[in-house]
Amino acid sequence: MRTFVSAVAVLIGLAMAAVAVPAMWADRNIVQEEGFVALTAPLGKDPAFQKRLATAAVNGMAFGGQQLPAPLEAVVKPILADAAQSLTSMPGYSEAWAETLRRSHRLSFADPRTLPPEVGGTTSLTLDVAPLVGLVVKRVSEASPVPLKAPEQVRISIGQSDQRQLIERVSAYAPMGTAVAVGSAIAFLLAFVAARRKWTVLAGTGLGALVLAGVWKFGSDAAGRMVQGAGSGNDVAEIFKREFVAAATASFGQWIMAALLAGGVLLAAGIVFRVVGGRRPASNNLP
């Protein structure tokens, strides 16, 4: 009976761990604002992405509501475009990019009832690049004949129409990952206490962790391909999506590697305990 209870507890613990680890990763790196900023901050170091993002933002801005004469607009717009190309080298760029990520996260993960009317009715993800545009406008304003006012919002829709619903589901269930992980740990502890042969629990848990790591790797790659295959028709969105998927895959890959190492250690420990335990009876028979 104890062996049966131990085996069932190990299986329950592995099943709960299979859900808990991806949920905890998503909560820490996607749902939580600081984790999202840390995950996506390296995208700001990609010159190609930032140049396209700045160019798209500048082309769509309305000079903070100012109406410029056509001749002046014809002069200012090329200056804006040139300044956008050197965005990553401007002082304060890192801070502006981090603020862009924070604003975008709030637009994507906030309660729909608290969103601005122009955003609340949309179902796709939104980037608010106003902090980046502000850097460009400030640079141009210092050199242009007429001071320009930076817009308060410069929003770019990315992704497909059903992604906000997906985010709402992730936001609802990802925070439960910690509780599920605690339940998984309790199940493994129960299995170890109930087992007659402790080494089988260690080896079985280690082997299960190795299998889960493979499942997570397969699922991560499949999710990445699915996201990459969903075209948005927006160059900026496509670059952001590609870089975000790469960053997320690399981040979750570290968790998978930790699971591989833990599984290998537990499996090796189980084998060692089995070998050491198997030798004890023989040594006890010596005169």
- First and last CA, distance: 36 Å
**Class based on secondary structure composition and strand pairing:** mainly alpha
Q: Summarize the amount of helix as a percent range.
A: over 70%
Number of strands: 2
Instruction: Output the strand order for the largest sheet.
Output: 1-2
The secondary-structure element order is HHHHHHEHEHHHH
Main sheet characteristics: 2 strands, antiparallel
As residue ranges, the low-confidence spans are 63-69, 282-287
Counting DSSP H or I runs of 4 or more residues, the number of helices is 11
Radius of gyration, CA atoms, in whole angstroms? 27 Å
- Overall tally of structural domains: 2
- Mean pLDDT across the residues is 79
Beta-strand share of residues: under 5%
Any idea what the shape is?
elongated
